[in-house]
Amino acid sequence: MTYGVGVLVKDGLLMAADTRTNAGLDNIATFRKLHLFDVPGEKVMAIATAGNLAISQSVISMLREGFRNPDTDRVETLIEQPSMFKAAQFIGHAVRQLHASDGAALERNGVSFEVTMLVGGQFRGSAPRLFMLYKAGNFIEATPDTPYLQIGEHKYGKPILDRAVSYKADLYDCLKLALISMDSTMRSNLSVGLPIDMVVLRTGGDDWEVNRRIEAGDHYFHDLRERWSAALRKAHTDIPAPPYRD
Amino acid sequence: MTYGVGVLVKDGLLMAADTRTNAGLDNIATFRKLHLFDVPGEKVMAIATAGNLAISQSVISMLREGFRNPDTDRVETLIEQPSMFKAAQFIGHAVRQLHASDGAALERNGVSFEVTMLVGGQFRGSAPRLFMLYKAGNFIEATPDTPYLQIGEHKYGKPILDRAVSYKADLYDCLKLALISMDSTMRSNLSVGLPIDMVVLRTGGDDWEVNRRIEAGDHYFHDLRERWSAALRKAHTDIPAPPYRD
What we know:
Radius of gyration of chain A: 19 Å
Oligomer: homodimer
CATH topology of chain A: Glutamine Phosphoribosylpyrophosphate, subunit 1, domain 1
């Protein structure tokens, strides 16, 4: 499994994804699931993937290598798309083309065609945008009402986002919340694990403000986990005992 | 959907379940999902159910009305079973018999036979026990290593239990944690909602120490939700900002 989260706030965009993949509990490996595309000074895009690794890797290869875009009838790559919206549509086409070529064979082998993606980025002169793309190639977009989107094993890490992320929140506060959300997921689900890849983009910026991997020995992340655990313990001990005893 | 949680610690047992059922978002109702069985001074048992409501209600009716127990070849009810283990086996037989009679018809109508249950209780002279029963009628039991079990929409409320519940924890601390877990689930999933039914049983006690419903206006639960939210907000604002900016 995977956990990926993207947050789009007034000040910018962030995306984070773990790197653990598993084909059964006895076949665990580390694969980067946050893929970056950029033309310096012009556009930056990131794609976080969840689902079948063969499918998501093939889609990323198609996006880099190019394929016939049915909207233009030309062979194109992702990076030459003219807007975030066109980029999301183009990724949808890649997913559909892969489904057309591989879907039946996968199904014959009892493998369902599963892939979801977060697609975020910014084109010069436009605000950052964040999409979540489904296996049918369709997608939804984050808005000020719902400024975060998640893929993969999303439930464990949702409560903290539901409570604390808002469109007007500080960008780095949201990064902290995304990491807390990641921590909650990793604690409750073995299939999500370090390292964590993350990017942060400021509205109007022309490059990633953060483009980093959090490894197992990362001091800040370790401290965040300890502090969060201690705060939760304190939080529940500070609540009075239930008065329900009859 | 449903959320049900049971915790078995040194001092006793607690179980809690929400009451919301839904057959589509436009068909939401309140049904009790925590069912009590007792012979005062002799034995107390509670069953929390998740899954298809028709199935779980029929199983509860079978347990009260009696059916032929394949282990004894006599018509028996749940309450006459001689131990918690025998009670869990008997419930498993009820689920299997219902599957034998209704499973095929459900399947023809595209409804899968889904039911899970938490079964907890205590017989005089024995320690409390807690089981989770699957739709095949098989079951697992809570142990000091893993003292809590969940049914239904379990992921949102799992992180707090993972962090704070242990076999040596205070019984009412665990009730508080179960209610926090319930709150997290209700905030993130519309299909889980108030009222909440709960029971608490002390090791060696011969009756429920708590047997209560938390309604929407409950002062303590409202306060717990507010305090927990405030503590989470404070917890994350107290953590320093991520130092990852390049």
